[in-house]
């Protein structure tokens, strides 16, 4: 079974390409999630994620639901944080 970065990258790219993604609500969404505010497009986020390697990926358990793995990608000044709840990807942060 494929795990870790490669699976997360493949699954989040698929979610962005098909529009099957949501945005986790948080107080500062206008600052932390440029995808949710429309300041960046799904295609722009796809382009950033495609440039990532496993060295730019980390993951940890969600702060309130430990069974959910939260992924963080840091590359080229971008910070992208997301998790999956089938069938959707949920974005917490997309910002520079």
Descriptive account of the structure:
The chain has 96 residues and is of the alpha+beta class. It has a 5-stranded mixed sheet with strand order 1-5-4-3-2. α1 runs antiparallel to α4 (42-50). β3 and β4 (78-85) form a beta hairpin. The protein has one domain: YaeB-like fold. It has 4 helices and 5 strands; from the N terminus they run αβαααββββ. It has helices spanning 4-18, 29-32, 34-37, 42-50, and strands at 21-23, 57-61, 69-75, 78-85, 88-95.
Query: How many structural domains can be distinguished in the coordinates?
Result: 1
CATH architecture: 2-Layer Sandwich
Distance between the termini: 33 Å
Report helical residue fraction: 25-40%
Radius of gyration: 12 Å
Uncertain residue ranges: none
Question: How are the SSEs placed, and which strands pair?
Answer:
Blueprint: H1 4-18, E1 21-23, H2 29-32, H3 34-37, H4 42-50, E2 57-61, E3 69-75, E4 78-85, E5 88-95
Parallel strand pairs: 1-5
Antiparallel strand pairs: 2-3, 3-4, 4-5
